[in-house]
Amino acid sequence: MSSFSEALRVHGLQSVIRKVMASEQVSADKELQDYHNHFAADLQEVEKLSRLLNAMKRGEVTEELLEACPDLAEASKKNEKLKYRKKILQGSLEKQSAANSSRGINVPMTKSAIKRDNEKAVGAPDDKKPKKDAKSKEKTGGAAPKQARKYDYVVVEDYGSSILGRLSDLFRKAIKEAFPSLDVALLMAETSNPTFGDYQCNSAMPIAAKLKATGVSKRPGDVAKEIFAKIPSNTEFLEKVEVMPAGFINIFLKKDYIKKQIWSIAKKGLELPKISKRRVLVDFSSPNIAKEMHVGHLRSTIIGDSICRLLEAVGFDVLRVNHIGDWGTQFGMLIAHLYDRYPDFETKLPEISDLQAFYKESKKRFDEDEVFKKRAYECVVKLQSYEPNFVKAWETICDVSKKYNQYVYDRLDIKIEDFGESFYQDKMLNLVDSIKKTHPGVLREDEGRQIMFPTGCEVPLTVVKSDGGFTYDTSDLAALNYRINQLKVDWAIYVVDAGQSLHLETVYAAGRDFGWYDESVKRVEHVAFGLVLGEDRKKFKTRSGETVRLLDLLDEGVKRAEKSLQEKGRHEVMNKEELEAARDAVAYGCIKYADLSHTRTQDYVFSFDRMLDDRGNTAVYLLYAYARIRSIVRTSGVSEAELSDYLNKTSVLPLDHPAEMNLAKQILKLSDCVLQVLDSLMLHPLCDFVYQLATQFHDFYNECYVIDKRGDKTEIHFHRLALCDVTANTMATCFKILGIREVSKM
Ligand SMILES: NC(=[NH2+])NCCC[C@H](N)C(=O)O
To answer: Which portions of the sequence form the region Disordered (predicted)?
Structure first.
């Protein structure tokens, strides 16, 4: 790794790298498209882009790159300042690695830094959050090796209506036939300019480059011709395929194919791609007991739930898991405090309305009162040896906390099952024993603690604390083991904030070291997300600087949604129940959609004003559009039976108007989009899809009469009614995946 990126990493600036890499993806796609559209005129621009990409890949900071990326320029400045600090740190690190070199272990951290990082939640009574720990790890130490993404993990059995899926199969086969010895990734893309067709195959350029590397010189245009020659001329969906001199292959779809597909969806319903059934576990939400869920947990809840919905929709066997922080020495002080404040807790569930305050009070006592502190420690010992009274006290605190969380889940339609850290207590004991037996020497003594350095990791996991207790690291190790070896999951997804990336990657590396899973067979991955910021772009807080209570946040959303419906006069046309349903759908839908429509890995600014704007890319805009389409069908006077009668009598929908055809093509892209989201676990392309669909519908409705009233003559265009129906059903499918409640009246 270059010294530049190393310095960035050491000083916790990975997020900048991530941003740069994210924009690299976009630029890379765009580069190809732009090259095609303007390749003669804009060759210089293309060369510049390519230089920028190469510089990014190499981790080199060129003047040009700094100019193009203000974020990077800023980071580079900071980096200069931090270099000095790094030098000092390095001095002490060198001493440390010398001490460990006899075992071949690379330790880039001071012992005190290690201690600071690992004495945490499951063990420590000192209110250290795992999140903080993970962050400080990132700031002070190195990285865990990332495992390679397995893009072919999801085995698609049936593409549903995915055109890209079918085209990809066709072109993959053609390339294999034309160039049997080459192994190249297929590049297929939608075109934005219809003169170049509907889709494009851009594989000829990388193939030509590969051939060149093996000493064969062939122009991309000629490579493209050879691929073209292997494409069958009589497919049911290809109208025309043309080869551009630069090597791009333009693909035009048969209009009849599209008309037939839409008819089939209208008649039989929408079919999403189907995958081979596999078991996947999604670890999401996962708040900590006695501390209220915060907006970070809200993000995890929303994103995790939507990922589950997507996986369920295509046929996975999904386990929705809440890895709640319900274990550890902090329970000592909470139990001791519960005994004092609510002595009758055993017979009556205490009304602790503000659990956060209860936590703070007990923490204050723990810090200031030595007698209380001693009692708290005794409580932990009694709890961990499962003394009934203490288990009851612990359960009481958990119940109060879970009851609160359940309000949030109910309001947001979230289904999730608890497998908290406490679930792993006996498993942690067994795990440590078995590691010692099967991997002797892996756990090493460090100031009384037992730590391990998984392969390639520079920051250790603390497996046993000096007082014999376990940590957040231990419970995550036990959870990973349990998930893979007991629950037999094929895919484990951890929806956790990006700050915990190092912690999770280190745990995964340990799992691979222990031989729990083979990366080519199972996929274990951290689905990271950025922070929630306030409109001032600082950490999201109340005006008085407190953590925002999620229930207050949801209430505020409901209040604002109600106001906006009132302002539109909806109360005059809807009854009370309809109004309430619309209000809740808008409020919760907007909060979810605002989160999901942003690039997951980036920070996002929480703004009620923006998320409730009915003219933008928001849930409220979509919900209005959806209700409008449903009402067109409802008020047409055509019954379901009449419509299905019409569909039975035909086998294509005559979608001859360009606006009809555009809308139809967009509908058919849903399956492609679902496959894309399945691969990246980024939900925003699905939001973009449904938004685009709503705007295409708008264009269609502006240009085409569904019900044509001229004088006293009324003509009903049945195929357009069917198209309305298909559009609304497609939107409803997206809403379902995004967790947005649909309402047919708004
Ligand atoms: N397996 C996991 N570590 N899941 C995420 C747990 C999140 C943790 N309870 C927190 O609030 O930060």
So the answer is: 99-144
Question: 647 is written with which tokens?
Answer: 């569909």
Record the tokens describing residue 547, joined without a space.
């953590």
Are the CB atoms for 564 and 721 separated by under 8 Å?
A: no
pTM of the entire structure? Answer: 0.79
Q: Are 3 and 83 in contact (CB under 8 A)?
A: no
- Helix (H), strand (E) at residue 462: strand 461-464
From 122, 284, 286, the mutation candidate for ligand 1 (largest count of ligand atoms within 8 A of CB) is 286
Name the nearest CA neighbour of 225 among 207, 252, 237. 207
Q: Dump pLDDT digits (tens) for 214-237.
A: 999 999 999 999 999 999 988 889
Q: Is residue 570 within 8 Å of 582, Cβ to Cβ?
A: yes
pLDDT tens digits for range 235-267: 889 999 999 999 999 999 999 999 999 999 999
For residues 681 and 493, the answer to whether their CB atoms sit within 8 Å is yes
Structural domains of the chain, ranges and CATH numbers in brackets: 3-108 (no CATH), 161-260 (3.30.1360.70), 550-738 (1.10.730.10)
- Judge if the beta carbon of residue 475 lies within 6 A of ligand 1: no
Closest of 528, 606, 565 to residue 146, by C-alpha = 528
323 lines ligand 1 (CB under 6 A): yes
Q: Are strands 461-464 and 707-710 parallel, antiparallel or unpaired?
A: unpaired
279 and 308 in contact (C-beta within 8 Å)?
no
Q: How long a stretch of residues is the chain?
A: 746
Cα angle 352, 355, 361; round to 5:
100
Binding site membership of 131 for ligand 1 (Cβ less than 6 Å): yes
Mutate to test the pocket of ligand 1, among 135, 293, 500, 532 (most ligand atoms within 8 A of CB): 500
Contact between 592 and 306 (Cβ < 8 Å): yes
Pick the residue whose CA is nearest to atom 11 on ligand 1. Answer: 287
Give distance in angstroms: CA of 287 to centre of ligand 1: 7
Rounded to whole angstroms, the Cα distance separating 617 from 621 reads 7
User: Which residues lie below 8 Å from residue 628, measured CB to CB, with a gap of 6+?
Assistant: 746
Q: What is the pLDDT of residues 652-676, one digit of tens each?
A: 999 999 999 999 999 999 999 998 9
**For ligand 1, what atom is nearest to the CA of residue 325?**
9
